[in-house]
Design brief:
Layout: H1 2-19, H2 36-68, H3 70-99, H4 105-110, H5 119-140, H6 142-156, H7 161-164, H8 167-178, H9 191-209, H10 211-217, H11 222-241, H12 244-273, H13 279-309, H14 313-336, H15 340-347
């Protein structure tokens, strides 16, 4: 899974570069020349990137807890997540906001300026605490642990489970009608963000515990391919068949189903093509973290420069992605790997 995790992280560079030319989204840097292609590209990447990432994170999280125990896990993850998070906020995101002309101490620390592209690290902190609590409860209550394992095994071993998984989205939407989950803050993220991605992290936990589901989720399934194509076609035609609440319900279900099926395709693709040990992907797995932390500032700087040059948008996009990748990789290879202090601050090692 190292290959998939590193690729998902690196796709963040492509996503943020595309936002500069996205006509449907006002990002931190905006080009006067924009195209629907970049909107579609952003939507496709957004569809599966973070859901698949959180599934992988849940898998490795439980594996680490089981292997080392809760105290060691907390120590390892605090070093790996919290130190780079704080370092990036203070040394990178502050510079980013200053360059954009948005920096004031009050706006930066009391607003959302400090979070920026680091929101997923805050999600992980909450999910890690949740996992530790869940494992502790399971160890204290053997009956609960046994019941939990049996029910998970019985449910997750079935291929049709993927048809039920999108139903969780209705729970989140329904909860939003009762309490303001879109405005309740959890230390930099909203309760909505916590809940909507929690389903994928939990599935990653279950995936680690259930070998049968690992096999199903990482192998090619003609049924899943048929469902993915059918769901995409259906999503395009449902506006002609439904309206009002019925349209909203069908669209929410189909979008959720497409996301889950896309995640399964990701697991299948990387399992088939990159399942062997590779020095390249081992290196990229380590480098992708540093690249992601630094790329956002670099994409903004390059974007401000390229927009001023008024280059062709497709060439400008390609130039930003290539340069951001290369510069971030050079920072990792020549600075972070060679200076222990920077390795600790921006890689947690």
């Amino acid at each position: 899974m190292d290959a998939m995790r590193s690729t998902l992280m690196l796709l963040g560079v492509v996503l943020h570069a595309a936002q500069i030319y996205n006509p449907d989204h006002v990002w931190k840097v905006v080009s006067s020349e924009r195209a629907v292609f970049f909107s579609e590209l952003s939507q496709v990447i957004h569809l599966f990137r973070m859901p698949a990432f959180f599934i992988v994170s849940g898998f490795f999280c439980l594996m680490t807890v089981v292997k080392y125990g809760e105290p060691v896990f907390i120590k390892l993850r605090s070093k790996r997540i919290i130190i780079p998070l704080v370092s990036t906020v203070l040394l990178i995101n502050s510079v980013q906001e200053y360059l954009l002309g948005n920096f004031t101490l009050q706006r930066f620390f009391l607003g959302s300026g400090w979070v920026s592209h680091l929101w997923f690290l805050i999600n992980l902190c909450w999910y890690f605490l949740f996992t530790v609590l869940l494992v502790w409860v399971a160890r204290q209550l053997p009956f609960f642990k046994g019941m939990f394992a049996i029910s998970a095994s019985e449910i997750l071993s079935r291929r049709c489970l993927i048809l039920l998984l999108p139903m969780y989205d209705f729970f989140v939407i329904g909860l939003g009608k009762v309490i303001p989950i879109y405005s309740i803050s959890l230390g930099g993220i909203t309760l909505f963000s916590f809940l909507i991605y929690l389903q994928y992290f939990l599935f990653g936990l279950f995936l680690y515990r259930n070998k049968n589901m690992q096999c199903i989720f990482s192998s090619f399934q003609w049924l899943y391919l048929f469902l993915l194509v059918s769901a995409c076609v259906s999503l395009a035609i449902v506006p002609k068949l439904f309206s009002g609440l019925g349209l909203e319900v069908v669209e929410v279900y189909l979008q959720g189903l497409i996301t889950w099926l896309s995640c399964q395709f990701c697991f299948c693709f990387f399992s088939k093509l990159f399942n062997r040990q590779s020095r390249v992907f081992f290196y990229l797995s380590d480098a992708s973290y540093s690249i992601y932390l630094f790329h956002h500032l670099i994409v903004i700087c390059l974007g401000l420069w390229v927009v001023q040059l008024e280059l062709n948008m497709y060439f400008g996009f390609s130039l930003i992605v290539a340069c951001a990748m290369l510069l971030s990789l050079c920072i990792h290879h020549f600075l972070i790997l060679r200076l222990p202090l920077l390795r600790l601050l921006f890689n947690g090692k």
